[in-house]
Amino acid sequence: MIQVKQIPKDYLQEKETTENEKQWTIENVHDPAIYKDGDWYYIFSTDAQITGQFKPGIQIRKSRDLLNWQWVGRAFSEIPKAAKEWTGAGGLWAPEITKYGDTYYLYYSASQFGKNQSFIGVATSKHIEGPWEDQGEVIKTKQGPGPNAIDANITFDKNGEPWMVYGSFFDGIFLKKIDAQTGKTAEPGLGKQIAKRHISVEGAIEGPYILYHPLHDYYYLFVSYDSLFTNYNIRVARSKKIDGPYVDVKGNEMTNTTLPPNDVGVKILGGYKFSSSYGWIGPGHNSVLQDGEQYFIVHHARTEKYKGHYLHIRQLIWSKDGWPLALPERYTGESERPIDIEEVYGDWEYVFLDKNENHQIHSHIFTLSKQPTHSSSVKKVESTQNHFRLTGVNNSDLELIVIEGWDWEKWQTTLLFTGKDVTGNVFFGKKVKSE
């Protein structure tokens, strides 16, 4: 059950960011990389802030409960020399944190906005809070045709071998094998291209993250589409092999640039607004945490009401056919309990995550009734544990997974759902009134 007293009150009404960085919690978090170390969760994030004197070095925060975050500091006091000389960067972007043996490896990106003269480097430490010793270049790219060496993510295949996926705009997303002894690439070259978008949308794909799910036996590639300032949205595809091909629900490959650019990838999160809130825009550049049997998607998001970017953590719920789906509300420590079919009858506020509309989407209301009328779009409701099948929605079947969660807008417990239809259209929402 939810412990209301554990939820930070500042989350109820986001506030203008303070200049005192020691008070930063979820404020100023951009491109978050999460790692669990013992009883602590750590977030490493891009050098990005709205107020105060800008400082480079990779921001670090920690928490014991994924809710209450505290400032730790920065990994570096300045940009590493080789990265600075190659790129002229003013700050470090899109960090990644992992561990080989007893050593922590912190990957960082250096570049300038709109350029692919870029640099991914790595630093090492025996403690996750540092001090960090720079080990220099992992991979770099030169301005011009080809990939962009930023946005590194380290993933381990089913055999425990590390790989690095990276890339932003330009020539798409690439994958390379990593040597666990050095933390650097195990072979020469730029790697294999596993995702790309058409030049008509400026090749707008970045922030890759790969997760292997042992139960479903798939590798899942998460990416962010479009502009981080306005219409960022998170897509996912999967593959039986770590190097692809990665495909969506319809079997479209992530390297297919002949289809309309929004047709490829399952959209699981984008800008949205419930009726009683200002909503969120531009959720994206995610990492994923597996914590026991729970999975969480960790990303930043913006608002139109307040300046800045904020850390969001949501549970990932898996559909019966093995697709990850994000909940509509941020995590508050809830644990799953069985949901009886009688509990789902009533009014629900929902958002259809339209793949072709990536700006903020407003919610609508639908009613689940024990006795559907002739005009009702929902003809039948069936349940198996927390999975509900709605028959007759847009002449299709809709699978919903329902759990108890927290309504941030109304500051109360409610039921949440996330789900999709057979063609990969995703919906999420929350219950607002019982029948």
Written account of the structure:
The mean pLDDT is 92. The protein folds into 2 domains: 10-326, Tachylectin-2, Chain A; 341-434, Lipocalin (Beta Barrel). It has helices at 81-87, 341-344; strands at 33-37, 40-45, 59-63, 69-74, 93-100, 103-110, 118-125, 133-141, 153-156, 162-166, 173-179, 184-185, 192-195, 205-213, 218-225, 233-239, 266-269, 272-273, 281-291, 294-302, 309-318, 324-326, 346-352, 361-362, 364-368, 380-384, 387-393, 396-407, 412-421, 426-434. It has a 7-stranded antiparallel beta sheet. Helices cover 3% and strands 45% of the residues. The chain is mainly β. The protein contains 2 helices and 30 strands. A hairpin with a 6-residue loop joins strand 10 (162-166) and strand 11 (173-179). The protein is globular and about 70 Å long.
The fraction of residues assigned to DSSP E strands is over 45%
The end-to-end span amounts to: 23 Å
Within the largest sheet, what's the order of strands? 25-23-30-29-28-27-26
The CATH level-2 architecture of the largest domain is identified as 5 Propeller
CATH class of the largest domain: Mainly Beta
Helix content: under 10%
User: Total strand count, please?
Assistant: 30
Provide a concise account of the structure shown.
3% of the residues lie in helices and 45% in strands.
